[in-house]
Amino acid sequence: MDFLRRTIHHEVLHLMDREFSKEGGLIHGSNWDSLNQEGFRYKISSPGGATGPSQLRFYKDNTKWQGFAEPYGMNIATDDRATLYARLMTAHAADEGRGDQPFLEKLKTDKILKAKADRLIEFFKMLKRDLAISETSRLYSQLEAACPPQKEK
């Protein structure tokens, strides 16, 4: 059931990304890619990436990189965003309500993953403002529950 929930959210993000992520936008192009560790290249955007090593081999060769909710996100930036969004949206309901503890812990300790989550939330806040979405929208409460804003020091 957890996989099905994540898959649905993953595909929904692809639809939203296609519709609302435009050149120069918060999660488009270099505005997203620059959040990755220096030197990282997505499999599909790497030279020879589409014909290079298999996905499994690519993941195995790239375990050193931080900032990914799932290895699948290393394929291309759109899947990076979609896997992260899916995890954020399902994190607390996963494992029969016990929560996706490995992901939630990683979100606390992986600064790159946290920066990407914050950027996605910023993107959704922009949509909320621009589309006049209600303050009580469940989408936003779920996002903020998984990735609460940092307290100002």
Describe it for me?
By secondary structure, this protein is mainly alpha-helical. It has one domain (2-146). 54% of the residues lie in helices and 0% in strands. It is built from seven helices and no strands. It has helices at 2-20, 30-33, 55-61, 77-90, 101-109, 111-130, 138-146. The chain is globular and about 45 Å long. The model has no long low-confidence stretch (mean pLDDT 85).
Q: How large, in whole angstroms, is the Cα Rg?
A: 15 Å
Measured between the Cα atoms of the first and last residue, the distance is 39 Å
Mean pLDDT: 85
Individual helix count: 7
Number of strands: 0
Short description:
By secondary structure, the chain is mainly alpha-helical.
Topology:
Layout: H1 2-20, H2 30-33, H3 55-61, H4 77-90, H5 101-109, H6 111-130, H7 138-146
Helix pairs in contact: 1-4, 4-6, 4-7, 5-6
Keywords:
single chain; mainly alpha; 7 helices; 153 residues
